[in-house]
Amino acid sequence: MSAHAGPPQVGAANIMEPRSGERPSPPFSGRGPGGWSLLAVLRRLTFAAAALAACAAQAECVARAETVAVPLVELYTSEGCSSCPPADRWLSQLAPGRVVPLALHVDYWDYIGWRDRFAQARFGQRQREMVNRGGGRVVYTPQVMLNGRDFRAWHSPAAFDEAVRKAAARPLQAKLALAVTGNAAEGWTARLTGEVLPRKGRSEAYLALYESGLASDVAAGENRGARLRHDYVVRQWLGPLPVGADGRIAHSHTFAPRDGIDFSRAGVAAFVQDSDSGEVLQAVALAHCRAQI
């Protein structure tokens, strides 16, 4: 045998003898490790990629209010109220984080001639209850409540900043964590957990889905001819929800994609308040959870 083998003939197999201790590779048969066919391997890879995509779609957004008090700002407003647009614009300038802003549209101005499509009777009922709990007698729009108490100086930046600073500086009364999973097609599932720290009195919790970037062209009533823009409009509301005797909070709710809600402009808010006085103890919000759109 010559020292060097000649070049293989065209069409002939070019086979190398295995060295001592080596295991020869089997002839290519279209199968992968364990005898899987390449088609089976590709199918498994495709399934794994789909599973990863599904996990990504279910990614969880989380917001916490556990170290400092976060005030709740409620604006009771109506598209049928000519005094309300300035308050609506003011609320739009607030950013979730320092406070949790919510716009609750009431329906008791609808009789004037314009039906507010965002109004819910329950919001007028809540407004009356909160005024009564706070010792007030007058229900009006636009009405701003800060942590459940009437706050008429909202139009003064200095007064509002000072009130928010004092509210945030008070001793911590509750801890909240809000998590959101889901997608725009099937809805968002919100999980509220936390605790009310030892205190006298009963407590209750609330969940709300809100939407921003809304607009209405008003064709009747006091705002006839105006284009009104709104942010933080409560579209779905859940509560009061019970708080355990030990102060523990654990609630889950799925906000369904209905009423034309655009989840790309939506957010979820939660808060806990004293059941008797209406004082808001803690609030938290998740604005525009991009992982869930």
Characterization of the model:
- The protein is of the alpha+beta class and 293 residues long.
- The protein has one domain: Immunoglobulin-like (Sandwich).
- It has 4 helices and 14 strands.
- The strands form 4 sheets. It has a 4-stranded antiparallel β-sheet, with no helix packed on it. A 4-stranded mixed β-sheet has the order 3-2-4-5, sandwiched between helices. It has a 4-stranded antiparallel β-sheet with strand order 11-8-13-14, with no helix packed on it.
- The longest helix is centred in the N-terminal third of the chain and has 20 residues.
- 34% of the residues are buried.
The termini sit apart by 72 Å
Radius of gyration: 30 Å
Give the integer mean of the pLDDT values: 84
Q: Mind summarizing the main beta sheet?
A: 4 strands, antiparallel
Q: How many structural domains are formed by the residues?
A: 1
Order of helices and strands: HEEHEHEEHEEEEEEEEE
**CATH-defined architecture:** Sandwich
CATH fold name, please?
Answer: Immunoglobulin-like
Proportion in β-strands: 25-35%
**Number of continuous helical runs:** 4
**CATH secondary-structure class:** Mainly Beta
CATH homolog superfamily: Immunoglobulins
* Record field, number of beta strands: 14
Q: How are strands sequenced across the largest beta sheet?
A: 1-6-7-12
Structural class of the helix and strand makeup?
alpha+beta
Unreliable residue runs: 1-36, 39-57
Form type: globular
